[in-house]
Specification:
It is a single chain. This protein is of the alpha/beta class. The chain has a single domain, classed as Spore Coat Polysaccharide Biosynthesis Protein SpsA, Chain A. It contains eight helices and eleven strands. This is DUF707 domain-containing protein. It comes from Methylobacterium frigidaeris.
Length: 292
């Protein structure tokens, strides 16, 4: 059995079939948690659970509480079903996350992606980054951390999960959290769309409640950059900001506001900042390693 597992909420139009190379050996296992009937998937060499209707986090909450099999793995990736990724990229993501001792992490979003948060986009200055936020779109968890965070899933009664990705880093003290720029995937659908105004109101109200419960907010901060040798690059907060700007230059033509957002987030790391760290660690990688 593999040490790594992908669990995906999928339907008939989901992109999970592009994640595997049929006929090639795979270093990770795939568990499909369908929200509708998806028909036979025999060629994918995967597990298929019972149909659980509803949004992503509704189904994942029910599955993870009912099926103990995921506890046999040491890494679990929970991607959205509209993610375009290759088998080798997923393998690399697991390997880098393990090598860097990331407990909550994600591959970066490729430049062609629809996105909501600039921090999730690939930064060309770095191979990986220590960050304060990993979006609910594509989070990967160390198994012990997923066990710790699983009770929070139930806080999303709507099943959309908004607010959980702000709470998780706070619970983890903003440590061992990363984005892997050297491994990118494509998010293929626009984000943030709600056809039902009442649903949007309930989702946003639920998100506000989660943030209030954990006294947290989205901290779209990069604490440190990591090179292709998997070593942290020694940079002052100001020099780090410069490299982040260089690495995200492709974003600014289409969204110049991203430059201001980036500065407002990173300035809390400056020694003369009027904005305190609010409990963020000065060395995010300082917490002792936990076992798998």
């Amino acid at each position: 059995m593999s040490r790594s597992l992908v669990i995906a909420r999928v339907g008939r139009k989901s992109l999970h079939r592009c994640w595997t190379d049929v006929g090639r050996p795979r270093e990770w296992d795939l568990y499909l948690c369908p929200f509708e009937d998806i028909g036979p998937q025999d060629d994918l060499n995967c597990y298929i659970g019972d149909v659980i209707p509803g949004p992503k986090w509704t189904g994942l909450t029910k599955l993870l509480n009912a099926w103990p099999g995921w506890r046999d793995y040491d890494q679990i990736w929970l991607p959205d079903d509209d993610i375009l990724a290759r088998q080798d990229d997923i393998t690399a993501m697991f390997g880098v996350g393990r090598a860097l001792d990331f407990h909550l992490f994600a591959p970066a979003l490729h430049e062609a992606s629809h996105y909501a948060h600039f921090i999730a986009m690939r930064n060309t200055s770095f191979f990986a980054r220590q960050v304060g936020f990993v979006e609910i779109m594509i989070p990967c968890f160390r198994r012990t951390v997923l066990e710790e965070l699983l009770p929070t899933f139930a806080l999303s009664a709507t099943g959309w999960g908004f607010g959980l990705d702000a709470a998780w880093p706070k619970i983890l003290n903003y440590e061992h959290i990363g984005i892997i720029d050297g491994v990118s995937v494509v998010h293929t659908r626009p984000v943030g769309g709600f056809k039902d105004a009442d649903l949007r109101r309930r989702v946003m109200q639920e998100s506000d409640g989660i943030l209030a419960k954990f006294a947290c907010e989205q901290r779209l901060i990069t604490f440190a950059g990591i090179g292709p040798d998997l070593r942290e690059i020694s940079l002052s907060p100001e020099a780090l900001l410069v490299e982040l700007v260089r690495g995200w230059e492709y974003l600014f033509d289409g969204c110049p506001e991203a430059l201001r957002w980036l500065y407002e987030q990173q300035r809390c790391l400056f020694s003369d900042s009027p904005y305190p760290m609010s409990g963020l660690p000065t060395n995010p990688g300082s917490r002792s390693k936990s076992g798998s």
